[in-house]
Amino acid sequence: MRSKPDFPPGTSWKYSNTNYILAGMIIDRVTGHSWQDEVHDRIIGPLGLRHTYTPGTSPFVPDPHAIGYERFPLDDSENPSFGPTIDATALNPSWGGAAGEIISTTDDGNRFLQALVSGEVLRPAELAEMQQTVPAPPFEAAWPGVRYGLGLMWIPNSCGGAWSHGGDIHGFKTRNGVTPEGTRSVVVSINTDSMVPEPGTPAPPEDVTIDLIDHALCGTS
Q: How many Cα atoms within 13 Å fall on the side-chain side of residue 50?
């Protein structure tokens, strides 16, 4: 609270991991339990997500798993040089807190997405509130026309649009989408959070998974 807000409340929008960490602190204060316990009791357990974990300070990913690679910038310029590729699979994810301290699989991710939008996780009024969206200009370059709700993004596609919310952590990038009625979903896991184009190769104009997710959700085969 010592820092001034980026803009007056209700006048703009910006993504912030800090807001999710604050949500985790509110869960702890209101329920008397950690956000990890509440997520297990309310979501992971009831939905049968057998391969979803909140690892705390453990740096290890349960086997079998992909190897996550990372290239760190060598300076803080707009177009920095990057160091060599390193194995970043083993890390302490607790720094992410309620914003990212979770390990899952694509199967469990699909199960959760479909359950969420079809009403298995929240009551109708709560889901409707979650799906109230506002324009999200900072994400426009990656997802043209994107809107942001309460932990959900609405991304237009060739068959109308889909609900989504990806995430990045050192070594891994996750993207996903689920149709409004929850009948079709897709989760894409990329084993690097630092995709650096080869010299002379232009960067993609949008998020690299847009076409793949569009085909999964809108394709006929």
A: 0
How remote is the C-alpha of 159 from its chain's centroid?
22
CB 47 within 8 A of CB 124: no
- Report domain 17-75+83-218's class: alpha beta
Q: Whole-model pTM above 0.85?
A: yes
Backbone angles phi, psi at 81, to 5 degrees: -80, 155
- Tokens 């807190």 found at: 97
Q: Is the peptide bond before 93 cis (omega within 30 degrees of 0)?
A: no
Say if residue 156 is exposed, middle or buried (CB neighbours under 10 Å; 0-12, 13-18, 19+). Answer: middle
Bridge partners, residue 188, by sequence:
175
Q: What is the pLDDT along the chain (221 residues), one digit of tens a residue?
A: 788 889 998 899 999 999 999 999 999 999 999 999 999 999 999 999 999 999 999 999 999 999 999 999 898 888 788 899 999 999 999 999 999 999 999 999 999 999 999 999 999 999 999 999 999 999 999 999 999 999 999 999 999 999 999 999 999 999 999 999 999 999 999 999 998 877 888 888 899 999 999 999 999 76
User: For residue 92, what are the contacts with CB-CB under 8 A and spacing of at least 6?
Assistant: 57, 58, 59
Question: Residue 68 phi/psi, 5° resolution?
Answer: -95, 130
